[in-house]
Amino acid sequence: MSTVLPSNEAPADRKNPARSSPSTRAMTMLIVAGVRRPRKSGATSAAIGKICGLILFSGIFLSAAAVAETIVPVAPQANAAVPATIVPVAPKINAVSYLVMDPTSGAYLVEENIELKVEPASLTKMMTAYVVASQLADGHISMADKVVVSEKAWRMTGSRTFIEVGKEVSVEDLLKGVIIQSGNDASVALAEYVSGSEAEFAGIMNRYADRLGMKDTHFVNSSGLPDEEHYTTARDLSILAKHLIKDYPAVYALHSIKEFTYNDIKQSNRNSMLWRDESVDGIKTGYTKSAGYCLVVSAERNGMRLISVVMGADSVRARTSATNALLNYSYRFFETRTLYSAGETITTGKVWKGDRDSLSLVMENDLLLTLPRGQYKRLQPSIELDGKLVAPIAKAQEAGHLKLLLDDKVIASRPLVALEAVPEGGFLKRLRDGIKMSFDE
Questions:
Q1: Is the pTM for the entire model greater than 0.70?
Q2: Is the domain of 152 the same as that of 253?
Q3: Among this protein's residues, is 41 annotated catalytic?
Q4: Which residue in 97, 105, 122, 272 is the catalytic one?
Q5: End of a domain among 239, 269, 299?
Q6: Is 266 part of the annotated catalytic residue set?
Q7: What domain range is 187 assigned to?
C-alpha cells in the first residue's frame, strides 16, 4: 500500500505540451490589458510599462524559483511488506469485569464488561485519596495538620487504622491509613476534616468524578461500604487511576509502601502484587461480600506503564492471579511508541500571498499509539490539507490532518496546525500569487 500524500499544487499538464505556463498566461493577460487600456500621458504610460515589466520579470523569475510544497512524513517508516503480528486471544479471567489500559496512549489492550456498573468496595478510597491530594496541592490542608477523630470515624467497622475518638491524628498518618491499611475510620476522619461531613465529601467526590469523565460512577461515602447508590465501572476506575498517577505523583507513591504502623499496630498493604511483581507500584484492593474481590494495579516495565482492573473475582488469590496474567499478556504482545512529538515538523506547505513561501505544519500534542508488537513498520501516514495556505495565517491555525492507516483502516487522526504566524506579503507578492492561483484553480 502506497502512502497517500496529497499536494496543494496542481499537476503539470502532460497531455498538452502547448499549454502555456502560469507566467506566460500572466504575461499575455497583462499585454492584452495594456492594449485595451485608453492611452494616457507619456509619463503615465511609462510608469505602467515599468510596473508591468517588474511584475512580469518577478513573476517569471519567481515562477522558476518557487518553493514547491513538500509533504514529508518523518515517522514512522512504512513497510507494507512486513507480515502482521499474530496476537493470541487474551486470557479468560473469572471475574465480573476487567481490563488493561495504557494510560499514556489511552488504549485498552484487554476489556470485558468495562461499562458494567459494579460496587467499588474499598476501591472507593482511590477517589478519597484523589480529593485529599487535590486539597494538599491547592494548599487548603497540609500533611502536618492535626485532625480530631470523631465518634463516627472511630465507630467505623471493617478494615481500620485503629484511630481513637477525641485523639489528634496528622493528615499524613490518616492518608497512609487510607492507602496502605484501607482504613474505613481514617477515610471518614479525612472526609470530615476536608468537608465538615462525609456526606458533603461524597458530593465533592462526585464532582471530581464528573470532571475526570467518570460518567458511570456515583459515590455516597468515602470508604466504599455497600449502598445501592454507590457504584462505578472498570472503565471509570481506570480513568481515576490514570489521573491519580499523573496529577498527584507524590500521593500516588504512597501506594507502593508495603506496610504502615499506627498506634503500635503494624499492618501490611493488602495489594499482594507489590511482593509478587517488582514492576508494580500501586494501587488499591477492595472487597465486600456483594462486590467480590477487586484489584486495581499499575505497573511499569521498560518505560511502558499499564493499569489493570479486576472486579468481582472469587478470592484474593483469584484476583491476584488474574492481574498477573493480564499484565504479562499485555506486556508480551503490545508496545507503546511516540510517533510524532509536539512541535515536530510533519509537513512543509507552500504559502500563498505571504511574506514567506513555505510554512511548517506540526501537531500541538505528542502522538502515541499502542499496537501489537511489530505493527509500527506497517503503518501508512497520510496527510490531508484543508486547502491552500493563504496568508495571513495565525500561529496554531488548523490547516489539515495527519492520518495513520493500518491495513487500509484509519487508526489515528490528528489536526495539523501552523508552527508560526505568517503575515501578508507585499503588494507585488499578493498580486503575483493571486494571478497564479487564478490559473491553478
A1: yes
A2: yes
A3: no
A4: 122
A5: 269
A6: no
A7: 112-269
